[in-house]
Amino acid sequence: MKYTPAPTFPILGDGFSDDAEPAHFPKHVLRFRNQRWAERVGLGDLDAAAWERHFARFAPLAENLARPIALRYHGHQFDVYNPAIGDGRGFLFAQLRDDAGRLLDLATKGSGTTRWSRGGDGRLTLKGGVREVLATEMLEALGVYTSKSFSLFETGESLMRGDEPSPTRSSVLVRLGHSHVRIGTFQRFSHERDEARLRALLDYSVEHYGDPDGELARAEDRPAAFLRVVTERSAALCASWMVAGFVHGVLNSDNMNVTGESFDYGPYRFLPKYDPDFTAAYFDHGGLYAFGQQPRAVFRNLTRLADCLRPLSPAAPFGALLRAFEPALVAGVQTKLLARLGLVSCGHDTDAALVDAVFAFLEASGVGYARFFFDWYGGFASERRAVESAASDAYRGEKFRTLLALFELYTPRDATRLAHPYFQKTEPCDLLIDEIEAIWARIAHADDWSAFDAKVAAIRAMGEGSFNSFATR
Question: Is 254 in the active site?
């Protein structure tokens, strides 16, 4: 793949961003380099010095943005509208095409203060960087459309934080993502009643993040068509979170973009066991963004996008378009659950019954979330392997009988995958908080990165075994 620069965001003109100045760090110690995605965007041949120059010192990439820009946006944060936000510890560094022709962003986290830092130091803790790398690797392996952690450097500063032992080590992360145009970006210009910039943002999003065949760009009612597409994408994303057992933690409207790609990982969690009330953020006291509330949170943000688009097309049927979210979510959960189990569809009604039976069993039995999908990958073809697992007692009980009968109706999508080394193991690859803390403890106390490196390798092996996810996007 040849490096293909595509610095399009400045076309929007004034009012969408502000120039930013990268921080100067005392150290640049590379801790993670995503070589496989570097190759997919034509940067795989960069040597160590060039990698550091671009992704720790932020020298511009050739024919790309001349200087970084901090993007402007607003957002509902825990249901309270905040007009004083924007990129406060990151910036858009470059835009380029991947091997599928998509416009992608290279953006930062922890790269210093900007106009929108609101008194913060603009830095990222090393622990926060490690957590984001692990989150993106795990989600990609599970088939979730996610931003990619592209690069992580330790930067040699001591940071003070109220939510982890301080002083703590610092880092700067570069993430590769399919757009940083957020629902909150539209909210900013709607709030300011700036219809010209609102329309320009819509046209930019349609041109660069529309559908490959250009149907969206040709639509007679572009705002309505755009909302339909974003609703479909967001439903698919939410469905993939639910099947992955992932709790984002902070589903504010500025943390959702228009491409349906998951990004920005703070206090995330993966479910130990099925629990609709499970929350990720220690400060989410009311459970606004609990696991089972994620569909409601996503829908709420889509209604806010509809409110922003309404002035551009007052007669558009936005209510009807939003009502498509629920059936799209249901269909997405069916598709994603069958993919995680490696099964061929038996048709809508049977697939719906399987989904209901899976979640009913998980809730009633308390079997580990990742354990279940590991044990029963391939459905009935894995019965012998499943009954030898640590959860075998649960699979012999009355609660499992209905589900077992449904499994008998399905065929594996690719039975040869059961011979993959991943399925010869006795334990699934998971990413629960205790393991993340143990990985970090070895880094913090002994600068031992072996557990981190081993976990990334194990996650990728799981993805290759069950989803072959890297071959998709």
Answer: yes
What is the per-residue burial (b if ≥16 Cβ within 10 Å, else e) of 334-352? bbbbbbbbbbeeeeeeebe
Neighbours of 84 (CB within 10 A): 9
Dihedral of CA 236/198/107/293: which sign? negative
Say how far apart CA 228 and CA 219 lie, in whole Å: 11
pLDDT tens-place string over residues 261-285: 999 999 999 999 999 999 999 999 9
470, pLDDT greater than 90: no
The full 3-state SS of the chain, as one line of letters, equals: CCCEECCCHHHHCCCCEEECCCCCCCCCEEEEECHHHHHHCCCCCCCHHHHHHHHCCCCCCCCCCCCCEEEECCEEECCEEECCCECCCCCEEEEEECCCCCEEEEEEECCCCCCCCCCCCCCEEHHHHHHHHHHHHHHHHCCCCECEEEEEEEEEEEECCCCCCCCEEEEEEEEEECCCCEHHHHHHHHHCCCHHHHHHHHHHHHHHHCCCCCHHHHCCCHHHHHHHHHHHHHHHHHHHHHHHCEECCCCCHHHCECCCCECCCCCCEECCECCCCCCCCCCCCCCCCCHHHHHHHHHHHHHHHHHHHHHHCCCCCHHHHHHCHHHHHHHHHHHHHHHHHCECCCCHHHHHHHHHHHHHHHHHHCCEHHHHHHHCCCHHHHHHHHCCCCCHHHHHCHHHHHHHHHHCCCCECCHHHHHCHHHHCCCCCCCCHHHHHHHHHHHHHHCCCHHHHHHHHHHHHHHHHHCCHHHCC
The mean per-residue pLDDT over the stretch 156-178 comes to 95
Assigned token pair, 160:
């003070």
pTM, rounded to two decimals? 0.97
Whether residue 253 contacts residue 184, with contact meaning beta carbons closer than 8 Å, is answered with yes
Given the residues 105, 254, 284, 375, select the one marked as catalytic.
254
To the nearest whole percent, how much of the chain has pLDDT over 90? 95
> What is the rounded average pLDDT of the residues 225-248?
98
For residue 468, pLDDT over 80 is answered with: no
Residue 44 identity (one-letter amino acid) = G
Other Cβ atoms closer than 10 A to 408: 9
C-alpha distance from residue 133 to each of 113, 295, 296, 458 (Å) = 22, 25, 27, 13
Stretch 328-349: mean pLDDT? 97
pLDDT digits (tens, 9 = 90+) for 417-456: 999 999 999 999 999 999 999 999 999 999 999 999 999 9
Q: Could you report the per-residue pLDDT of 76-129, keeping only the tens digit for each?
A: 999 999 999 999 999 999 999 999 999 999 999 999 999 999 999 999 999 999
